[in-house]
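Report of the visiting student (M.T.), summer placement. My assignment was to run the structure pipeline on a short list of targets and document each run. The first record concerns Inner membrane component domain-containing protein.
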Amino acid sequence: MRTLGNIIWNIPFLGFVTAALVFLIGLLFVVTIIAAPIGLGLIQYSKFLLLPFSYDMVSKSEIDGDADKNILWQTYGFILKAVYVLFLGIPMVILTLVQIVCCFCSIIGIPVAIVMAKSLGTLLQPVGKVCVDHSVAQALLVEQGRSQLAARNKIERQ
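After the run finished, the C-alpha cells were exported:
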C-alpha cells in the first residue's frame, strides 16, 4: 500500500519535483556554510518527499537522546532558526498549504495531502530533523510510550 502511495505521489502529483526543489534550496544553504544546519535539515526533508509513505521525519534527539550543547551553539541555532522562519520557512509553508489544498480537490490526492500536512512542522523547523524508515519511527514511538508508562507507574507507586 505504501508503494502505491509513493507511486501516486511521484507520478500524477509530481512529488519528485517538490523533492528536487527542496533539495536544491537545502544545497544552497549548505554551500553558504553559515546556514548549513538548515540546509542539512532541508536535504533530509527532500529525502522524505521522495517517498513520503515509506519514511517519517523524527527529531534527532529522539534517536540520539538529549545531548548537551554549549550555550553559544544554542544561541546561534536560535538566531538561525528565527531568520529562516521569517524569510523562508513561512513562505514555504504557505506554498505547501496551497499544494495541500490542491491535493484535497481530488479523492486520490487526499492521502498525499494528509502526509504533506503532517510534515509542515519539519518544513517550518528543519534543524535537528532526520528522515528515517517508517518502521524505525514506529519503534521510537513504542519506546517513548513505554518510557512514559514506566514513569507514570513509578509516580503512582510513590
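The longest helix spans residues 71-103. The chain has one domain: 2-157. I thank the supervising group for their guidance throughout the placement.
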